[in-house]
Write a structure and sequence with these properties.
This protein has three domains: about 120 residues, Adenine-n6-DNA-methyltransferase TaqI, Chain A, domain 2, CATH 3.90.220; about 100 residues, Bipartite methylase S protein (Helix Hairpins, Orthogonal Bundle); about 140 residues, DNA methylase specificity domains (Adenine-n6-DNA-methyltransferase TaqI, Chain A, domain 2, Alpha-Beta Complex), CATH 3.90.220.20. It is about 30% helix and about 20% strand.
Amino acid sequence: MKKDLTPTVRFDGYKKAWKKEKLSRIVDVKNGMDYKHLQRGDIPVYGTGGYMLSVNEALSYKDDAVGIGRKGTIDKPYILKAPFWTVDTLFYAVPKENNDINFVFGLFQNVDWKKKDESTGVPSLTKNAINDTDVFVTDYIEQKTIGEYFKNFDDMIKLHQQEIDRLVCVRKAMIEKMFPQNGADVPAVRFGQYKEPWRLCQFSEIFKERHIIDTISDEYPQLAFTIEEGVIRPEDKKTNKRDFLIIDKANKKYLQTEYDDIIYNPANVIYGAIHRNALGKGCVSPIYKIFYTDQDSTFMECIVRHPRFIKEISRSMEGTVKKLRTLKPKAFLEKRAYIAPSIEEQQQIGEYFRQMDRLIEIEKEELEKIKHIKSACMEKMFV
């Protein structure tokens, strides 16, 4: 069946059919190069993961381009603003005359580059694979109009991502300042009314293990647990991005968890698999360890997820092979940390980070909405 050579949605005034072309007719694909012989400067160097550092020379001084991975990440193209340098694992595709950079970027985003992977190991693209790719294009004037439209989406995406990055940096800085460092018994930043030194507590004083075997029920539904998001519902689409999801289907036996419990995966805790249950009652796999506390749970989550504490935990894990090392409940309860002496101070600190986390979550949700709208528009506005 012949493909319709007009997009589903077009701006007014454009009627011509689009043309099928090879990407070699649209862009000039160029190789990146090693930068180590260069001196530091103000020209950015890019790799498949984005910006790396700045040097004193450029591969492209005037022409913007689309960066696309040669090895490693091959399916995340992005625009490179001249002047720039790219490493040898990143191609840069310069639009030929009468082709708009933002439109060309859209073409690259619409290609399933993983299908063009010609390697048996690390994902790889070749120049030939890029040049031989079929795309559908229109005249420069319509390209410019479409490109500008999607550039507005990209600008919004960039702004939201910058705000997320800023909030994450602020949160990280405040975690350092609002909890004691280097053996001190008071934090550098504190709510004004509190003066007492924090007390050094063993976790066995403030945590109790919850080990109630149960089956799934309406009151205690099945829950999942991920490194990034902690306790989530299994049907949550975000579980597609999980590092792991453990469900004990064979025995149908689970562990009960309650709202505000602290849960960790004994094998993955050093990678951040320790979270507060912010969802509510449920059942999780019995491989997890569950604790409850009479302290403020968000405050305690900040302590157990602090990078310094995670590093300390790694020294207490048992096992000879790194991948098989685990943190036993006994070792967890032997840990010590400085704790704010009053629940009121803990609650204020906990509330501060709850609000910070909510701000980050709102920005992430908004970012995902914009990405979704952009993706839907691209399906209709490109052939």
